[in-house]
Amino acid sequence: MVGMADFAEGVPCWVDCALPDADAGRRFYGALFGWRFREPPGAGESYAYVGPHPVAGLYRKPDGRLPTAWTVHFATPDAGRLLARAVAAGGTAVSGPDVIGELGVRALVADPDGAVFGLWQPGTDKGFRELTAPGAYAWSEVRTRESAVVDPFYEHVFRYVGYDVPGASGERLWSPEDFGPGVDTAVLGRAVLAADDVPVELPAHVLAQFRVGDCGKAVEAALRLGGRLRDGPRATPYGTFAELADDQGAVFGVVAE
């Protein structure tokens, strides 16, 4: 998507993964999604490419106590301002704002239920440059047990308009205020972690999902590479979905439309 517009505030613009072994991560995701990797100067992580376009980042986590996880980043023209707004709304500042050379400014936030997400103030790095091809980012969903607290947090911080999904218990879609509510304008989803089928030790999180041509084949490939199947494949109104963990434990989703 050469020349694609910059992202409006509150729209997911980047996703990256902190791993104990970044080389192993490049092997796993390179084989699964066909990603090729480069290391832009000053980025501190490997960028994954679909064709000529960056779609994700992988890096070795600096502290073994940190979670092995994918992190979704939301665009903003001012990471410091939005971080302060999130903290005032009941979130927790995890790190930043950190200036990443000329690339941009990054901050990490935990929502009131503990799900961590990023804020990205672009410099020369605008974020995703491809969103339609297999291997590209597809969607994100906040997974929480505390929707009564989490919903107003995101709707205040990002000025989202909320939209409950008809016929889908516990699911909500969010659109930026200027976009208007509805399925066609949504940029983020929220699902409630059900007590009867989700382990109590599973923390709240933001689940990143990637496009694939065939969900079943992607699951088979992930299992061959040492990953684990957590859910699916199952049909949804938006395509066939599966939730996986890679060979180091980072959880992500795949979806075939």
UniProtKB/TrEMBL annotation:
Q: Which domain of life is it from?
A: Bacteria
Q: Which SUPFAM superfamilies match?
A: Glyoxalase/Bleomycin resistance protein/Dihydroxybiphenyl dioxygenase
Among PROSITE patterns, the record links this protein to: VOC (PS51819)
* Matching CDD domains: SgaA_N_like
- Where does the record place the VOC domain? 11-122
| Record's protein name | VOC family protein
This chain's source organism reads: Streptomyces evansiae
